[in-house]
Design brief:
- The protein is 22% helix and 14% strand.
- The chain is an alpha+beta fold.
- It has a two-stranded antiparallel ribbon with strand order 1-4. A two-stranded antiparallel sheet has the order 2-3.
- Strand 2 and strand 3 form a beta hairpin.
- The relative contact order is 0.24.
- The mean pLDDT is 93.
Amino acid sequence: MLQATIAEVQRISWIAPGSIPHTTTKNTRVGEFTFPEKSTFIANLAFMMNDPRFFDQPDVFNPDRFLDSAGR
């Protein structure tokens, strides 16, 4: 339960709102967009960790979301 609580604190508190920078190694196409080699990307972790498509009731503190049915 302690590990689940820490994970939920990190998810809800935006400790690190962005990921470390990543760089493309070749021209890359994502959907309708094309990015040249050596383009830099930073994921918006704060948005993803609070997106209701991935987390039910993202504004609610709930460490149970990180536990399986056995409580681990």
